[in-house]
Each structure stands twice: as structure tokens, then as C-alpha cells.
Amino acid sequence: MRFTSFLLLLFVLVSCNTESSEADKKDAASNTQDPHSYANVHEIRTEHLHLELDVNFENQTIYGVARHKMSKHSTSEAIFDVKGLEIMKVTTGKEGKEKATEYSVGKNDELLGAPLKVKVGKKDRYINIYYKTTEATEALDWLPPSLTAGKEHPFLYTQGQAILTRSWIPLQDTPLSRITYSADVKVPSELMAVMSADNPKERNVKGEYHFEMRQPIPAYLIAMAVGDLEYVELGNKCGVYAEPELTASAAYEFEDVPKMMQAAEELYGDYQWDQYDIVLLPYSFPFGGMENPRLTFANPTLLAGDRSLVSVIAHELAHSWSGNLVTNATWNDFWLNEGFTVYFENRIMEALYGKETADILALIEFQDLTVALEDMTSGEHPEDTHLKLELDHRSPDEGMTDIPYVKGAYFLRTLEQKVGRAKMDVFLEKYFNEFAFKTITTADFETYLNENLLKPNKIDFNTKEWIYGDGLPKNCVEITSKRLDNMIALANEFNEGTSSKIPAFLRKKRGDFITQEWLTFIRSLKHDTDLKTMAMLDQKFEFSTKANPAIKSDWFKLCVRAGYTPARPQIKAYLCKIGRRWFIESVYQCLVDSQKDGDYEFALEVFEAAKDNYHFVSRSTIEEVLKNK
Ligand code: BES
Ligand code: ZN
């Protein structure tokens, strides 16, 4: 006993004395270069970041100081990422004992921004960057009161993933390294600030908030929201922040979140982040959800009223393991974040609602994947159908397709079928433990899989084909659902003009089927469905007017393809209100692809009216879509 503690002590002493570059070798991602960052993290890296932020809504500017505590190093220069920031001064030394130091901002690249190079002495451990954000910021969405639920107060939120954090904080913006952070934030006193850290439950009269994130996280997970927020508890260690107008419906929609947490912990081990809250953002938020640690950012389109879209919360919660605990080394390894998360999300849904529901969700994803594979195979980058991506010199955003998400999840499902669920679950729990708070590459995962699952069980598996091959391997599992097959059969009757099931169907109401059943029905109707049928369905089920945004998105695509122009006012209202990229991008794309008179002009007109309501992420995506006519 005493001897082992002695050995341990010796080990600790030896590892402390080694040069930091030596210690770095134990880091799984130590030899990896991130093509999307200038930071020299293999020479010097931030260990802790303290932020002092003054959030000014009048001139839509954050005035900030980013105080970096750096690792031991032997370099004379630290390189940070910046984009659209104004750097005022840079100092070294602890607060109060600061000395100005030389720095330079390199040439700005449209995609990556610029390197901020700071001169450091060998003993300098503190670098303080004084800065302010500008209009060119890509992470920040400053919203006027008119775009909030309450319509009285402005709102601000940030979106960091993938490489936007550098546009509101000067830092080493690469998931290769992890940092802890703290922040002192000042906001107008009638607003509340929350971050991906420990959060206030009450408003502070002076608008001053302090935050701590004690677990090391990658830079893309630093996030903040400021608005007229209040907190409702959903359970032990779990709650939701929302504008007062939305707290009741949010509490209803997300009632099962505590059960999700329990299910997740039973599957893959303890939740490591103490608290799990959700903040409901305005409609402009470009994603369904974003897994900021301790505080998922959620889109109000999730409030379907019938809990049919809560799998998005299961997804963001699952990221507390896959992504936030075990993080992709670069954006080329993005499938390690999203594929594992979609798989895990589905296991949570199965635990709560049963296999039928889980299979329905997995099938909807498979429908999306099939369309994506068709588009991508005939497109400019067929190699984007590989799980391991090569996005050098391209935006990491281009990797956000159904491949990392759905092909990634089907890879794990196929593997599960081969090895059996019991072994799969033991393996995954071990994997999350082994790499907790680490950053790993696809190759690290492959080695771990071979050593810990395949070899010990003498299993042959086509891992390489899944990860580095085109399209979908032949051994992909097949999932079926009677309920979705029924919707396909119904749609086919409309398509073929037969009617054995239609009379009974027309006696139903929209609420008699869940969102995913409607999606399947609408997707299965032929693209040139006649206008009489379109009008009849719309009148009967009120898709254009009353359906939830997920259903509307697919319905409006069909309206465009079928040339059902009476839906145009509703399409316009929808695209002006909602900024969730996956919902709106495909509707714009349909309008651009349409050969019908006036559709493209209509798309341009709608975008003109809607673009100020979008976050940069969606605005820039739609601009691209509209350019490629
Ligand atoms: N982390 C993603 C969102 C993201 C990915 C933002 C890449 C920026 C770059 C988040 O977890 C996500 O996947 N959201 C999905 C929901 C999910 C159920 C597929 C979304 O927003 O639709
Ligand atoms: Zn995700």
C-alpha cells in the first residue's frame, strides 16, 4: 500500500518535471493539427480563461477582457484565433501587475479569421486581451424586442460551434485543447445572463453575474444568453430558463427530461456536469438544439404542444457524454460527436417510450439519409459521404450533413447488432470513461474499438469501409415500422388514385398521428400531386396554418414542388418567423430548384423580408443557396 503510494508520488513528480511537450505526448490528439485554427496549442495553451464582459445593447457591442492563464511553455509567441474583433491592448502578468506586450493581428481569412500573435516571455503565464466585438461578429445574435416572445426586451445569444467563438472571444479556437473558464458579466438590470457554466436562478438587481465552469471544455462550448429570462425547475438538478410567456409550455413539453437523465445515466454512467438545464431562445436560433454544457440551448420550435419533438433534448443531453465528455479532435472527426449522440439519443428514447417510438425516429433519420446520399453522390464532394471528413480549406459547416449524424448512428447500430447489445453497452460505457474530458481522433477510436471490443470477442467488422468508404455499406441494419408503412400505403393511394383506406383516413384529425407519421405521409406523396388533392388535404388537416414547424417544413416543400401557390403567404410567414437552418434551408432550396414561373423571385423576395430575422449561420447558408440558381 505504502509502496504503491510512493510509486504514485514518484510518478506525479516525474510527470511534473517533464517538459510540457513531453507531457503532451500522452494527449491522444497531440500530433493532430486542426485545419480550422491558427492556435499553436502544441507549444502553449490556455488552461483557464477568465472573462470580464460588459454587454451593451445600445450599441450592440460586448466590451471584454479575456484573461488567459497559459500552460508552462518554452515559446516566445502565443497564437490565438480572432475574427471580426477589435483588439485594444494585450498585456502579460497577473491582474494589477500587468505589462503591455507586443502583438500583431495577421491577415484576415474569410473563413478562419486571423491569427493574433502575442509576444511572451518564457515565464509569462498570464496573457490579457482587451477587446470589443464589432458588427462583423458571426457568433452573436442581437435581437430587438419584436423578435422575442415577450416583445418588450431585447435578447442576445451566442453560437460557438463550429468556429464562431473566435468572433466574440479571442482564444485558441480548436477542440484539440480544453479549458476551464469563469466570467464576470454585466448586463442591463432588467435582463438575466446565463452561460454554459453554473447559473443564477434569480435575477440580480444590478445585472451583475458571476459564472464558473470547472470542468475543462473545448472553446466551441463557451456560450451565453441574455434576456428576460426566468427559471422553472423540472426536477432535481434540472430545469428550464425561458421568457415568462413561454415557461409554462416549456415546462409541459420538457416534463420528461429528468427521466431522460436517469435513463442516460443507467446506460453509460454518471452525468458529469452536476446540473442540466435548458434555455429556450427566440425563433431565430439556427439549430434545434445546441449542447452547451450544463445548459442546452433550445429552439422554441421544439414546443410542438404534444412532446413529439423532445428527442432533440434527448440528443443534446446525450452530448453530455458524446461530444462534451469525449470530444472530436477536429471538425474532420465530427461524426465522433454526432454519430454517437444520435445513437445514444435513440437509446434514451427507447428507454422512455419503447422500441416502436425509437424505431420510428430512426426511420425518419434514414429517410433523410437516403435523400442526402443521393444528392451528395451526384454532387461536388462525393467524398463527404465518408464518416471521416477532409474539410481542410472548407467551412466545417459543410460537414454538418446527415452523414456524421445518421450514417454515424447506423454504423453503431450495425455494430451493436453484430456484437450484441450487452457487449456494446459495456464497451460504450468504458469508452466514455476512458476518454472522459479528452479529445480524440477517428484513429484513436478505431484503435480503442479493435483492442476493446473486436479483438477480445474475435469479431470481424468492416469498420474501415464504414469510416473511409463511400455511401452506405451493405451490412447496414434495416429498421421497419408498421405505423410508418401504413402512412406510406395511405400516400400511395393518393398517388395511384385508389381508395381503400382513404375514407377512414379523412375522418381523422391532425392530432391522431404523431409528427413523424405526418412527415412520412407528406414525404411519400408524389411531387406532382394535383392541386385539388393538395387543397383538400390542406383544408382538412390545416398543414399550412396550424401544423408544427417540423411538419410545415416538409409540407411547404411539397407545396413548392406541386406548384400549390395558395400556400405562398403561409410559406412567407413561416420563413420570416423561423430561423432554424435545417427547417428553412430545404424550403429555399426547393424554390431555387423549381422550374416554375416566379418561384425563384418569390424566394428572393421572402429572403429580403426575412434575412434580418436570421442568425449569421442561417443567413449565410441561405445566401449560398440563393446564389446557386
Ligand atoms: N451540435 C449540434 C448543432 C451544431 C452542429 C451546431 C455543428 C454547429 C455546428 C446539435 O447537437 C445538433 O445536432 N442539433 C440538431 C438536432 C438533432 C436532434 C439532430 C439540430 O439543430 O437540428
Ligand atoms: Zn448534435
List keywords for this structure.
629 residues, alpha+beta, Immunoglobulin-like, Zincin-like, Neutral Protease, domain 2, 4 domains, seven-stranded mixed beta sheet, five-stranded mixed beta sheet, 39% helix, binds ligand BES, binds zinc ion
Number of strands: 21
Distance between the termini: 72 Å
Strand content: 15-25%
What is the CATH architecture assignment of the largest domain? Answer: Sandwich
- CATH homologous superfamily assignment of the largest domain: tricorn interacting facor f3 domain
Counting DSSP H or I runs of 4 or more residues, the number of helices is 21
Bound molecules: ligand BES, zinc ion
Question: How many discrete structural domains?
Answer: 4
Model regions low in confidence, pLDDT < 50 over at least 5 residues? 6-26
Q: Could you report the average pLDDT, rounded to the nearest whole number?
A: 95
Spatial extent as radius of gyration = 25 Å
Q: Under CATH, the topology of the largest domain is which?
A: Immunoglobulin-like
Structural class: alpha+beta
**Judging from the principal axes of the Cα atoms, what is the shape?**
globular
CATH class call of the largest domain: Mainly Beta
Which bin fits the share of residues in helices?
A: 25-40%
Spatial arrangement of strands, main beta sheet: 5-4-8-2-1-11-13
Instruction: Let me know the largest β-sheet.
Output: 7 strands, mixed
